[in-house]
Here is the input.
Amino acid sequence: MVELAGKAKNLDAAKALLAQSLDNGQAWAKFTEWITAQGGDRRQLENPDLLPAAPLVQTVPAPRSGFVAAIDAAEVGKTGVDLGGGRAKKGDPIDYGVGIVFHAKIGSQLAAGDPLLTLHANNQAKLDAARARLLAAITWSDSPVAAPPHTLKIIE
Here is the structure.
């Protein structure tokens, strides 16, 4: 994007510019500016203990041994909304304390009982529903599965 915006002549120059921006703090300053402009509290970036925390936290174990073959991202997103972490419609409030943390990704090998994901919720019924929905959103394989590529296609 840096190269496409005309800020660098080639990919190597763009990488150098980005590294410099990270090293000198310019990228961090811009990021905190964005957070503040959107009503966020930059102190939470430097002290995560200031972030809201859900009262219910549950680590969900892998239900079986095997390899994570697929994760239905749409179901994960809808589950996050159902927990309160997103909006179903304009104007819905967002609960910044809830969420989903995956401990495994596509291609990961797990034994039954290994930590699969952690749910953060404010309501036991929502937590239970999220747990069931997310377990159903994961496809397992008995054989190794290649992780998907990070870049699917470059559009020029």
